[in-house]
Design brief:
single chain, mainly alpha, 8 helices, 0% strand, YdjM-like, transmembrane, membrane, hydrolase activity
Length: 174
């Protein structure tokens, strides 16, 4: 007879990250975090945030993106491990530099670039809420998480938290 695992998941699910990215996109649009996001089409903002919200987990071959882009995921996982480089402020800085490079000039509207960063940051924020935390200052191994409270992920609690945050953000925006 196989024993049932009682281990509590410590990472947010892809579904949780997607829902949470919509929440963050709505809040970024409403607050407005940047002038471009304030004037942006809300649907465009949400779609861009959704598109980038799973990117940090590319460092895990079993993640949604990792399974589809194994040629990137496997070497990245071997080099940095899961929740390594891609879950750091250094990765965010490199994404910002890449989006603002001459190669991207004129190709992607500023509001979409901002929303892509919001989606990426929403992933980091979501993982910051979990017991495993994130290595904000990678390559330093210290992990940071919300002190005093950790989101138990992978089940009803995570789904409820993400859905409730989305409903509250949606209510506030509209």
């Amino acid at each position: 007879m196989r024993r049932r695992s009682t281990r509590i998941p410590v990472t947010m699910t892809a579904q949780g990250h997607l829902i949470f990215s919509v929440t963050c996109a709505l809040l970024a649009h409403k607050l407005p975090l940047t002038p471009a996001l304030a004037d942006a089409n809300l649907a465009q903002t949400v779609l861009a945030a959704l598109a980038s919200s799973l990117l940090p987990d590319l460092d895990h071959p079993n993640s949604v993106l990792g399974q589809r882009l194994r040629w990137i995921s496997i070497p990245l996982s071997r080099m940095t491990g899961h929740r390594g480089f891609t879950h750091s402020l250094l990765a965010v800085a490199l994404c910002i530099l890449g989006l603002n490079s001459d190669l991207m000039a004129g190709c992607v509207p500023l509001a979409v670039k901002d929303a892509l960063i919001i989606g990426y940051l929403s992933h980091l924020l979501g993982d910051w809420l979990t017991p495993a935390g994130i290595p904000l200052f990678w390559p330093l191994k210290q992990r940071f998480r919300l002190p005093g409270w950790s989101l138990k992920s992978g089940g009803a609690i995570e789904t409820s938290f993400c859905t409730l945050s989305l409903l509250l953000a949606g209510y506030w925006v509209y």
